[in-house]
Amino acid sequence: MAADIIDGKAFAATMREKVADHVSRLKADHGITPGLAVVLVGEDPASQVYVRNKRKQTVECGMQSFEHRLSPETPEADLLALVKRLNADPAVHGILVQLPLPPHMNADAVINAIDPAKDVDGFHISNVGLLGTGQKSMVPCTPLGCLMMLRDRLGSLSGLDAVVIGRSNIVGKPMAQLLLGESCTVTIAHSRTRDLAEVVRRADIVVAAVGRPRMVPGSWIKPGATVIDVGINRIAVPETGKTRLVGDVDFDSCAQVAGAITPVPGGVGPMTIACLLANTVTACCRANG
Ligand code: GUN
Fold first, then answer.
1. Cα–Cα nearest to 98, from 77, 70, 63
2. Is 115 a catalytic residue?
3. pLDDT for the residue numbered 172
4. CA 11 → CA 84, 113, 168, 258, 268, distances in Å?
5. 141-268 adopts what CATH topology?
6. 97 lines ligand 1 (CB under 6 A)
7. Residue 96 CA, ligand 1 centroid: distance in Å
8. Cβ-contact 105, 79 below 8 angstroms
9. Which parts of the sequence belong to the Tetrahydrofolate dehydrogenase/cyclohydrolase catalytic domain (predicted)?
10. How far is 70 from 104, CA to CA, in rounded Å?
11. 0.95 surpassed by pTM
């Protein structure tokens, strides 16, 4: 195996320590405790796991956690009323409405009802616009975590060729904006991209965020490239009758060629929550001048 493994789990643990330090200073020096409200509508099993982890880590960092669980039949108006209350609550500095929402709800309307200053997901249209124009914004957690690992590994990213595979609002598009902000030459590839292999082969940085298990083989990777795997796909393992998590890149073959690669699990995933905690502290500091 040629590639270095980028240890997102260890990186995230260090970040959480820094967040916890910052929180204790805010408490000691200013009497302020950052607070994060997480809203979960429905019983999606994956969302329940994410929300539980977010709560646990929020509390472990010394912050206040406010959890709101609503039934899947909750009318959208009730969710909007809750968001309005959280917007007005001075103890709440960050608000996260877990996605996906049930089909009867308009996710855009709900996200855009969140006070942009408390939008720790960075999904509000104002934050999207600020990021796109290079202004100070709340930055979506998963792309932010990817960028931190890239900067840690590579230092300056200026002039590098970066390919982002996937064009979602949550990962692909903001990731491309962040890389552009670092002066990379950025390509966003997606399901309609012609000759994806050729596009990926040019890249010094590959960020895979398509949600298709092991879609990117090692033969697509430029030797020495840095590969960031955002995918979390659960697949069946027929030999054991169990399931396991794999990314969007074929780890074994890509690790033979890449210079560095994130594993799944233990790569991007832990960084996402660490960045959420950091964003909550940032929102708290901005709210308190
Ligand atoms: N569902 C999956 N990822 C995310 C995320 O980063 N934020 C929210 N709000 N929901 C999600």
1. 70
2. no
3. 98
4. 35, 33, 25, 20, 10
5. Rossmann fold (3.40.50)
6. yes
7. 8
8. yes
9. 6-121
10. 14
11. yes
Residues 180-220: tens digit of each pLDDT: 999 999 999 999 999 999 999 999 999 999 999 999 999 99
Q: Which atom of ligand 1 is nearest to the CA of 142?
A: 6
The catalytically annotated residue of 57, 98, 177, 250 is 98
Compute the distance from residue 99 Cα to the ligand 1 centre, in Å: 5
Q: What is the phi-psi region of residue 274: left when phi exceeds 0, alpha when psi lies from -120 to 50, beta otherwise? A: alpha
**CA torsion, ordered 279, 282, 288, 289, to nearest 10 deg:** -140
Give me the pLDDT at residue 200, please: 98
Q: Which of 215, 218, 210, 199 is nearest to 161 (CA)?
A: 199
Q: Domain 33-119 belongs to what topology?
A: Rossmann fold (3.40.50)
Exposure letters 154-185 (e unless 16+ CB within 10 A, then b)? beebeebbbbbbbbbebbbbbbbbbbeebebb
In this structure, are residues 233 and 103 in contact, taking their beta carbons and an 8 Å threshold? Answer: no
Q: Spell out the domain ranges in the chain.
A: 33-119, 141-268
